[in-house]
Amino acid sequence: MTSDPAGIVSLDERSRQIFRQIVESYLETGDPVGSRTLSQRERIDLSPASIRNVMQDLEALGLIYAPHVSAGRVPTQNGLRLFVDALLEVGGIDAVDRAAIEQQAAMRDMKLEDALARAGEVLSGLSHCAGIVLASKVASEIRHVDFVMLDKNRALVVLVDTDGTVENRVMDLPAGMTPSVLAQAANYLNHHMRGLTLAEAARRAEAELARQRAEIDELAASVIEAGLAVWGDRGRSGDKLLVVRGASHLISGAEASGNLERLRLLFDDLEHKENLIQLLAHAEQGEGVRIFIGSESNLFSLSDSSIIVAPYHDTAQKVVGVLGVIGPTRLNYARIVPMVDYTAQIMQRILG
What we know:
49% of the residues lie in helices and 18% in strands. By secondary structure, the chain is of the alpha+beta class. α6 (95-105) packs antiparallel against α7, α7 (112-127) runs antiparallel to α14 and α9 packs antiparallel against α10 (218-230).
């Protein structure tokens, strides 16, 4: 979380108190708050007229606004940011949330993908938002490679890892390719590259092809090189695995607030996973929990959503991914921030 409380310094104690009440009420109910409602609260000993004057000042500062004519006020995006940075009181994680998160750490012998999915499901279930987990793909060892000719210009490359994961990708073929040459290339890779990662296989193939090119059909050699190049970035630090769980949790809240169109836009945003991956990768660079509100993320500006994320580490304290939740800007930040932080700690235990 960033901290920029400069804006709060300009507010006197009375303005801070009213501003806090407006934001906390909005986060709890989602409804605008009026001066009469505020005047009836025990912690505010002011008349409705005095409160209205303060609210006008807060509105002039761009911290609150009236969503409807003659209605109460709700915080703006800038107001939420000021509240999160300067007034949000974050305590320890709730005991019930802690127990639910720790259950996943008790599970043993999970594959990385299963652990990521489990973390996303737990975050989604506890927060009633979409749970997201981003990780660098682990470089797996090759068990089998096959080439399937689709037409004279394209072939399907089938890669099977030693953990049973199967990936299919389409590659362009050199001119004059035949099924027999594809079979020869597959046989070569399966004989010489089994048990290696793709990065290792690419390096070995490059070295061996340089030495043995005279012994290998030129077309087969080009297929071997192209086939490995299809997965050239797989297993590198820039290759990311993204898990999104529980997006349906957002539907009920959107129906209640009449924001189904915003929900549709949010789902559209989630479909563009490249943008989400870039955002989460940016969050990896920071320490601790980070909060992006609305357009701050450059991803959810139209869907009125917030994202709360934290990096998680391996046993060597190297950042290996990011996890968190996506939900409406009206989130229970005080509860979700420690929840995300603790889940990041638990992920390190699982990876260990």
